[in-house]
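Task 17 of the worksheet. Students: predict the tertiary structure of the chain below and write it out as structure tokens. Keep your answer in the requested format; marks are given for formatting as well as content.
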Amino acid sequence: MTVLDQIRVGRPASFGPRGDRSSIATRSAVAGPVMAGPAGLAGDEVGDAGLHGAPDKAIHHYPADHYAAWAADLPALAGRFMPGAMGENFSASGLTEAMVCLGDRFRLGRALLELSQARQPCWKLNVRFGQRDMARRVQDSGRTGWYWRVVEPGLVAAGDGFELVARPHPAWTLARVHRLLYVDMLDRDALAEFIALPGLTPSWMRLATRRLDSAAVEDWLPRLEGQSR
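Model answer:
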């Protein structure tokens, strides 16, 4: 059973050249139980509630397994790649995007969590690491992490185990979602199947519907680089 290694919470602070409010660099590990609820973890806040936070992005999980690969990819930054580097709330080893599926429900401590969507990396990672293409590297790698919804609130703590209790969409691992979003981007059959998944987040429903309707892929530059074409 995969065990939660760290819970990390923080409050927004000025970040980046424009002084955007973000918690990506302020989250630190906490000891003891923390309440997980529909709005996220007690003591944690997001800088832009329009793009982050509850209910579909209540808790950000990043696999600690990936940090060795990042250190190998970017040896000059190797010392930066440790739990918390991606601004995550949960750090754990043993669960990766190839092993979890959209809609998975896990019991963790007293809480019941549901995997809502993969993280779509943004330009803040470029600033965080001083690497102009870091967000794109994260996107291209598939090492994105994911978000949990909180279905049943409860206390969670480092050392709690993730117990899988439901897998309604076993064909839709996050690795497959990544392929649809960033590789086979206009696979109409897969997009139609994706849209039909119960519980799909509204933002992903809109994205997939636009691709089907327009036969075109959305502009990633604002998200990845903080700019428009």
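Marker's comment: Helices lie at 67-73, 124-129, 134-141, 174-182, 188-195, 202-214, 221-225. The longest strand covers residues 111-118.
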